[in-house]
Amino acid sequence: MDYNALLLTTTEIGFQLLKNGAETYRVEESLTYVLKAYNRELTDINIFAIPSCVIVSFTTTAGDSYTKQKRVLNRSQNIDRIIQINSLCRYISAHHPDIDYINQNLRHIENSKRYPYKMQLLANCIVGFVFTVFYGGSLFDAVIGAVIGALLQLNSSLLKRFRMNAFTTTVFNSAMIAAVAILAHKLGFVTRYDSIIIACYMLLFPGVALTNAARDFIAGDVLSGTIRFVEALLVATSIALGSGITLKLLL
Amino acid sequence: MDLFLDCLITFTACFAISIHFNVKGKLIFFSALGGALSYYTYVISSPANSVIIQNFFASIVASIYSESLARMLKVPAPTFLIISIIPLVPGSNLYRTMELCISSKLSKFASSAVETLGIAGAIALGILLVSSMFRFAYVIQKLNLHKKTNSEGNV
């Protein structure tokens, strides 16, 4: 039994789960299942995960102790990958495949593509359009909302290159939304700039952090829950901050 | 009729947001349906006459929907939950709060901020309540299974 390979693979699974935005209790549970399924002789299996780090450690029957830790620096929400890794973990705990097989599958999942860029742009447009109507804008306002939705996607991928943290990115994005909406209002295109701004907030809102915080609290993981909750609060504050400053300056 | 149209709008929006979060295949349809469902619950619980209670009920319904669907389709519950609560997130409240803050109406700002926080808390509490019920059921099921395998003698 190559314990080192087992350690590396398990840590990689945990890393991938956290990186794509899974809850931390899911990471801890899945890795424990994987290790237990793999080798019944391992004792003292300890997995510790917080949203930005995962630590895997176990002891073999010979008394050797193995530990590896991996930091998770960039996180983004990719639900499809979480689903794939989750079913891989189910498969592992039922069928105990080779480690090579797991690694191959992990690499395959890691390389799985998101939707094409144009389709993501279109999706953002639809969100902007539909929510502007929902919050009481006219159809013409909604067109501007759609344009801002697309701009948001372009702006996010631009800001990614500067490697800013989530809060600065959110402040910039939210300031951009407000600036374009108010500019369109001043030029006379738009009657209700507030519904446009609220509609585009939806693309920035930390709903994921809030959901995961609640779910981590249930699992008894108060530390991770708190981290996510504070994250949600900070992102919400930066949304308000970015558009607030712009509103104050331009209006 | 108006309610139906609004539900259709939220369905479309949630459908698009699912693509934003990279949900694939038939799951997009189910998660978007969750969004429409939670909005529908929000509207029909308006006799409660409190935004926070309405959000709480809607969040409970969204969580029940997501957790049961997750068990049926064997995918993680957040797939549906994240999308389903999108129509509930207090975007307009956040905007009003921010607007009151920059026009320095401080007492109104404070009450608006508390309301926004209250809504977020109500959503989180709804998820907490339902998910812990489901977790409880899951643990009991696992304990029963454990007992059975132990009594049969093959661990």
Q: Evaluate the radius of gyration of chain B.
A: 19 Å
Q: Please, how many helices of chain A?
A: 10
- Helix and strand composition category of chain A: mainly alpha
| Low-confidence spans of chain A | none
* Number of H/I helices of chain B: 6
Distance between the termini of chain B: 58 Å
> Whole-Å distance between the termini of chain A?
68 Å
**DSSP strand tally of chain A:** 3
β-sheet strand percentage of chain A: 5-15%
Report the helical percentage of chain A: 55-70%
The H-and-E topology of chain A, N to C, reads as HHEEEHHHHHHHH
Gyration radius of chain A, rounded: 22 Å
Number of domains of chain A: 2
> What's the shape of chain B?
globular
Oligomer: heterodimer
Could you characterize the architecture of this molecule?
The complex is a heterodimer of chains A (251) and B (155). Chain A has 251 residues and is mainly alpha-helical. Chain A has 2 domains: 3-110, no CATH class; 117-250, no CATH class. Chain A has helices at residues 3-19, 24-38, 79-95, 99-110, 117-134, 139-161, 166-186, 193-201, 207-218, 222-250; strands at 43-50, 53-59, 65-71. Chain A has a 3-stranded antiparallel sheet with strand order 1-2-3. In chain A, strand 2 (53-59) and strand 3 form a beta hairpin. The radius of gyration of chain A is 22 Å and the shape is elongated. The model of chain A has no long low-confidence stretch (mean pLDDT 89). Chain B is mostly helical. Chain B has one domain (2-152). Chain B has helices at 2-20, 27-44, 51-73, 78-84, 91-102, 106-152. In chain B, helix 1 packs across helix 2 (27-44), helix 3 (51-73) runs parallel beside helix 6 and helix 5 (91-102) runs antiparallel to helix 6 (106-152). Chain B is globular and about 65 Å long. The interface between A and B is large, with 54 and 44 residues.
